[in-house]
Amino acid sequence: MIKIVVFDADKTLWDHYNISIFKKPYKLINENSIEDSEGNKLTLFPEVRETLKNIKDMGLLLGLATWNLPEKTDEILSLLGLKEYFDIIVSKDFPFKFIFLIEIINKIREKGISIKPDEIMFIDDRRVHFGNTWLYLGNVKCVEIWSDIFHHKQILEKIKSF
């Protein structure tokens, strides 16, 4: 049974490939889109907000594991009103997602919650992050968005199937 769903951010929650390049000031175009001072734009993928809310309503924890500068992640999530959904956010400027997941597991355990790798669902747009996740953590349920699933509502179905 899944206890936590951990998302990547870039190309998973929104359409931009790297929010670390964004420059202030940011402009909220609408509740789902942002533009920076150099014209870089990002837009949430359809159903993201609803899916995050539904996962929380299921009583599951939500995590974010993103290869971005932490201050950029915090600013973008806050501006989009998404930060409130996530129980644990790990944002670092290096590509080793399995280390992010280890940190998330440790933070969950610090809260007194027991968690095993097979109770984690990790959603990323790049399968390359799954190999080391399985090697170092074990049977984490990894889902490649845009390949294993094709829209965010399917995440709810995947949770139930695990």
UniProtKB/TrEMBL annotation:
PANTHER family: MAGNESIUM-DEPENDENT PHOSPHATASE 1, MAGNESIUM-DEPENDENT PHOSPHATASE 1 MDP1
Name of the protein in its database record: Magnesium-dependent phosphatase-1
Molecular functions (GO terms): phosphatase activity
Coiled coil: none
InterPro entries: HAD-like_sf, HAD_sf, HAD_SF_ppase_IIIC, MDP_1_eu_arc
Pfam families noted in UniProt: Acid_PPase
Top-level division of the source organism's lineage: Archaea
Organism of origin: Sulfurisphaera javensis
Cleaved signal peptide residues: none
NCBIfam families per UniProt: HAD-SF-IIIC, MDP-1
